[in-house]
Amino acid sequence: MPMDFGLMDLIAARLDRISPSQTIAISTKARELKAAGRDIISLSAGEPDFDTPANIKQAAIRAIEQGQTKYTDVAGTPALRRAVAERFRLDSGLDYTSDEIIVSSGGKQVIYNAMVATINPGDEAIIPAPCWVSYPDIVALAEGTPIVVPCMAEHGFKMRPADLEAAITPRTKWLLLNSPNNPTGAAYSAAELRGLCDVLLRHPDVWILTDDIYDKLVYDGFRPATIVQVEPRLRDRTITMNGVSKAYAMTGWRIGFAGAPVELIRAMNKLQGQSTSGPSSISQAAALEALSGPQDFIAEMVATYQQRRDLVVGMLNQASGLRCATPEGAFYVFPSLRGCLGSTSAGGARIDSDRDFVTALLDEEGVAAVHGSAFMFAGHFRISYATDTESLKEACLRIQRFCGGLRR
Amino acid sequence: MATGNNDDAAADGFLSGCMTRLEVPATIAMAQRARALRGRGEEVLSLALGEPDFPTPAGVIEAAHRAALDGQTKYPPVEGTPALKAAIIRKFARENGLTYEPSEIMVSNGGKQVIFNAFMATLNPGDEVIVPSPYWVSYPLIISLFGGVPVFVDCPEETGFRLGAAALEAAITPRTKWLVLNFPNNPTGATTTRADLEAIAEVLRRHPQVHVLSDEIYEHLVYDGKTHVSIAQVAPDLKPRVLTLNGVSKAYAMTGWRVGYVGGPAWLIRAMGSIQGSSTSGICSISQAASVAALDGPPGVVEVMRETYDRRRRMVVSALRQIPQLTCAMPQGAFYVYPGIAACIGRTSAGGRRLDTDEDFAIALLEEEHVAVVHGSAFGKGPYIRLSYATSDDILRDACGRIARFVAGLT
After folding, report:
1. How far apart are CA A383 and CA A370, in angstroms?
2. Mutation target among A105, A269, A272, A289 for the B interface, most CBs of B within 10 A
3. Do B257 and A280 touch (CB under 8 A)?
4. Which phi and psi angles does A70 have, rounded to 5°?
5. Which residue is closest to B52 within chain A, CA to CA?
6. CA nearest A104 in B: which residue?
7. Within chain B, what is the greatest distance between any pair of CA atoms?
8. Helix or strand or coil: residue B387?
9. Burial track A43-58 (b if 16+ CB lie within 10 A, e otherwise)
């Protein structure tokens, strides 16, 4: 046998199903330009620019000093699980007991646990697009088939009941819903969810994972809604997922959680017991303070995000060739750049795709954004406004200049 | 598929095939049993846990404070922070004589996630993994989860629970993808020697398809003047197919912080990073900052723990050796002893329980004397029991007394 045995032979087939990262090329390039001394404004990050509130950090420090440095229950500490159940009750009127709660190392692990614990080869998961690319990746890694359903800008990037009905087959196991959405910021109202629930009631074999991680970040008085709240009869086949990363600016602490029927929680717990065991005990103590301590931080953060959103939407709509809707939530906007396709930039780059657009924008104006294809939706790009107002203003001016310089 | 009102039926039809291959580990089942007993108000002496009873060192805690206050609260890179990877590279160079590049290092949520990532990234259905027995329960569970086949190789008590080269050679087939090495060993406390590893390396040179997962999480806990040796160090020519796994949990009493790490070939690390990127992303930023301080900290901290464990080890072994029905090897590593209980099998306890297996023994010992241990068959080798001496001297003394009374009461 040859001695250069390795890569090809050792890697499992399931790994081929993960698509290579679409965003890595652009973020690598942005880092290189920055390192070379270029003035780069990055609007590509998916995390809050706020720091974790002081009371939460102090709770973590207290936990360390009190010796909370040992293995926790795999599903999370009893105190945190109770606090999660209480938050679900206060925020959405959901009624979960603490054995119907799991705490994981980030919301992503909740999704991963749920998919690996339930998907058999060939099972289908319906994913409304634009979507966070980890959904199809995780479904594929679990050997299922992602069914990506495009949701048009004209419909506010939301799935309509008829779209859902048409996508369901006898092999459908999951609907993965994300509201407010990454990358569009679109959020479903209770009335919009009602229509989807009616379809789901007709298909009792379809389970629902609702990723509500951005639900504290909604604007103009919008009232977020979640599936089980709208239709309690779907409770015994829904996973309600949330976490502290976005609402409490705690991305690095890695705490996500979910409420779900106890049998599914038990299976996810079993899988987590063999993959990572429980999340960091310190982070769990911090998350406990986040969920049960003072909540005023959120309102201040939301007011700031709303101002930035309005600023960005207004300025982007003044750029020639762009069209930008005003989304209900999250900290993203997802403008259409179709009006720019087929042109040539001031720097001489052909703009035939969303990827060409963001590459040239970075090269020529030093603004990093993510192309829509990375979210399975071409012809758009994603801007994160989780950055300071001055940088946002400057970035939007540069985008206006870039678009103004495009020639047919 | 059922629709949900009958919950168990719903779960039966709904869960994936891989979940049926995933059992509850016996260690957890035993812990649950002990907890139930405690719930009834009974005092239970637990020697069942694999967790240090020391607090995390002060310097590590201070580093975590600083990290939280400095705002190191953002997403860390999937494969670990540059600072922690650099500290790990220094650790491997200093303590193991191993040279790694940053692209050859990855940080995970505990050593367990390293194993999970490695097997998920590499096992196709039917691939074989050689697991020396007795073994940590999670190895075969994770292997089976991904359709792999654990192939057990017996490590007999008479040779100090060491893995023999001939036994390894006999277990290798064309489908063998991995060999798992775990020295110092959980559950036996067995360590390995340079000569043993050289013999194992010689076998592996004849089988280039076999990769090695060397789980060295108990590295710092070796006694009697022994020093830990690492396979990639003993056989540098094999390093391109070795994953060297370690972590801060056991050496620095940091189980709750959840930080394990691994050094290995860049292409494999990349594949494991791809799995971790889809399952959890990078691990807690505060824990990573704390781990830098642990790895770069003064060695004295580990030394104090080691001396304490050493004293407890001698105390427990000498107490158990006074019980004529037990055999007890003197382990040279980790914080476990693994006495044989063959002479107790087939007898009846004072409480009237018939002991047909080591599990019967462990359950009767818990119910009648309130001492929690884990039966050896859970680790693939009975009739033995595993005792963890990562607990106070008083509890250990009391527990050994109760075990002696329990065994003396057998008829």
Report:
1. 7
2. A105
3. yes
4. -110, 165
5. A70
6. B280
7. 64
8. strand
9. bbbbbbbbbbbeebbb
């506010």: which residue's tokens?
A: A156
For the stretch A59-118, pLDDT in tens is: 999 999 999 998 899 999 999 999 999 999 999 999 999 999 999 999 999 999 999 999
Chain B residue closest to A65 (CA)? B61
DSSP strand pairing (A350-351 vs A343-344): antiparallel
Low-confidence ranges of chain B (pLDDT < 70): 1-13, 24
Asked if residues A376 and A136 have their Cβ atoms less than 8 Å apart, the reply is yes
Q: Residue A148, CB half-sphere, CA atoms under 13 Å: how many?
A: 17
How many interface pairs between A and B have CB atoms less than 8 angstroms apart?
223
How do residues B157-169 score in pLDDT, each as one tens digit? 998 999 999 999 9
Hey, of B3, B12, B16, B255, which one would you mutate to test binding to chain A, going by the most A CBs within 10 A of its CB?
B16
Q: For residue B346, give both structure tokens.
A: 């087939």
| Contact between chains at B11 and A274 (C-beta distance less than 8 A) | no
Q: Is the separation of the CB atoms in B34 and A266 below 8 Å?
A: no
| Residue A46: band (very low, low, confident or very high) from pLDDT cuts 50, 70, 90 | confident
Whole-number Å distance between alpha carbons of B35 and B41: 10
Cβ–Cβ under 8 Å, residues B186 and B165:
no
Q: Is the pLDDT of residue A25 over 80?
A: no
Is the torsion defined by CA of B196, B197, B198, B200 positive or negative?
A: positive
What angle, rounded to 10 degrees, do the helices at A107-118 and A134-141 form? 30
Cross-chain residue pair A274–B286, CB shorter than 8 Å: no
Predicted ipTM of the assembly: 0.71
